[in-house]
Design brief:
The protein is mainly alpha-helical and 519 residues long. The chain folds into 3 domains: 301 residues, no CATH class; 33 residues; 166 residues, no CATH class. It has 16 helices and 3 strands. Strands 1-2-3 form a 3-stranded antiparallel beta sheet. The protein starts with a helix and ends with a helix. 22% of the residues are buried.
């Protein structure tokens, strides 16, 4: 019997592990999406074909408490009625609770198999399993409704975390809430993939099947992420999960992932086993029992030989790398061998042609050397003539340059001499101006002293002549005139300054006489 040690070396077995883990992660990525869809439905936010499918406020309030007959022993409140004329059957409500009946009819209208054609000899119908809803008073209203669309065996399901891929995919296939946003082909293909993966006797999957499985996983999650009725954050989370599942397709499979995949299969087998027990399917029970024994044996082998298997995995990886390198080397050797063979054949075929071409090349080379020698001689002769002509031109240029330099030197001496004379004249003029300025400053100082003296005399006279208005006004006018002269004295010419001095002295004498005669 082939053990796990031999299986993990096969590419097909690793394909099975990748597909199993990818399906499980796809299922988890749908948890919040499915939950949010039923939440939107109970709040009347889903875009359904008929507005009559939505609950009324009274119906929601009645069934949300968990005490209505819709939430307790639902299988006793409905019956399956056969219409002999159309050979079809449908579910009908038996309870007298009108609110629960209205809610039941609306939920039933979402079921894709609410009416089923009766096949001859069929004693029971498996389209809707009311046992799943035996008692839903302890879970949310949204998940109590979701359980009505699940397959048999979900009596103890309390939320998305308890929902395996088979139940999740069946729920979405059976409920019209997911008909438009999600393509049915993805759901059906993944449901088939689930049964193929978990009911496989050898756990081997071909490369083409792996690609097909992952394409449908990505397609399903992409449809769900683009559903405008769910929260945008949920859509973004699903898109992130798509990236993680894509990476899993190319990831290296470790022993931990082998162990996880076998445990997922074991749980799926147990779920299917419970379902077959309810259906009394003896043959399927025997098949599932054999599968369970194989899975248990593989898990036990992994547990007992974990370190050994881990080393085998490491060695397998190294062997794969060496084989890849060896293939590359062999390909290179083959390429070189083929190139050498072609070169050899070409050499044998064209040997004489190559020799003739070499002889022609030698003759051509000799001719080229002779021509080159003659050209070098001609160039040397031309360069000699050019050098002689250039030497003569340079000699004449240097002589003319020397004469120009001498003339420039004489002109410079004459210019320096003239400039020195002009500078002496400027210096004499500057000294004369400086002397005049000194004299002017002395005159201004005297004017200021005399003006101050006159101003003091005017102040004294103004104080004395306060009692005589006419004289007082005349004194103030003279005083203002003196102050004006004082301010403007620096702007006068030398002759103007002399006049100001004379006027100031005259004013001083006049007012002294006035003071004398006044007293």
């Amino acid at each position: 019997m082939e053990n796990v040690k031999d299986k993990i070396k096969k590419k097909e077995y690793r394909n099975w592990v990748q597909s199993t883990l990818g399906l499980e992660r796809t299922n988890r990525a749908l948890y919040e999406y499915v939950k949010d869809k039923f939440t939107s439905y109970t709040h009347g936010k889903c875009a359904l074909q008929s507005s009559q499918t939505h609950f009324t406020q009274d119906e929601v309030s009645h069934i949300r408490r968990g005490a209505g007959c819709l939430r307790m022993s639902l299988e006793k409140m409905v019956k399956y009625k056969l219409d002999k004329k159309t050979n079809t059957s449908k579910w009908e409500w038996k309870s007298k609770c009108s609110k629960c009946e209205g809610a039941f009819v609306k939920i039933l209208s979402l079921h894709t198999e609410q009416i089923k054609k009766v096949n001859k000899g069929e004693s029971h119908y498996r389209d809707i399993h009311w046992k799943n809803c035996h008692d839903t008073s302890n879970i949310s209203l949204e998940w109590a409704i979701a359980k009505m669309f699940m397959p048999q065996g979900n009596e103890n399901n309390t939320g998305p975390d308890d929902t395996d891929p088979a139940s999740m995919l069946s729920l979405m296939l059976n409920c019209d809430l997911f008909t438009n946003p999600v393509r049915k082909s993805h759901l059906q293909k993944l449901k088939e993939a689930r049964n193929s993966l978990f009911h496989s006797s050898n756990n081997l999957v071909k490369d083409s099947d792996v690609i097909d499985y992952f394409d449908h996983m990505k397609g399903l999650l992409t449809d769900a992420s683009n559903d405008n009725e769910v929260d945008k954050n949920i859509g973004q989370t699903i898109r992130n999960d798509i990236g993680k599942i894509e990476k899993l397709k190319d990831a290296e499979i470790t022993m931990t992932l082998f162990d996880d995949a076998l445990k997922i299969k074991r749980k799926a087998i147990y779920d299917d086993f419970e379902k077959c027990l309810s259906d009394n399917d003896i043959e399927q029970l025997k098949l599932l029992l054999k599968l369970a024994e194989k899975v248990a044996a593989d898990l036990q082998f992994i547990n007992d030989h974990f370190d050994e298997l881990k080393n085998i995995e490491k060695y397998k990886k190294e062997i794969d790398q060496l084989e890849t390198k060896q293939k590359g080397i062999e390909a290179g050797i083959n390429t070189l061998s083929e190139s050498f063979r072609q070169i050899k054949e070409s050499h044998m075929i064209h040997k004489h042609e190559v020799e003739d071409e070499l002889e022609m090349y030698r003759k051509f080379q000799d001719d080229q050397e002779k021509q080159l020698t003659n050209q070098i001689k001609l160039i040397y002769h031309s360069m000699t003539q050019v050098w002689k002509t250039a030497k003569e031109n340079l000699t004449r240029s240097f002589m003319e340059l020397g004469n120009s330099y001498k003339q420039l030197k004489n002109d410079s001496k004459e210019m320096v001499s003239n400039t020195s004379q002009e500078m002496g004249q400027v210096k004499d003029h500057f000294e004369i101006l400086e002397l005049k300025l000194h004299r002017q400053n002395k005159i201004i100082s005297r004017i200021r002293e005399n003006t101050k003296s006159v101003s003091r005399d005017l102040d004294q006279l103004e104080h004395i002549s306060n009692d005589i208005p006419v004289i007082s006004q005349g004194i103030r006018g003279l005083k203002n005139g003196v102050c004006f002269c004082w301010r403007e004295v620096s702007q006068l010419s030398a002759e103007g300054m002399v006049i100001v001095v004379v006027v100031t002295i005259a004013i001083s004498i006049i007012f002294r006489l006035c003071l004398y005669f006044a007293f």
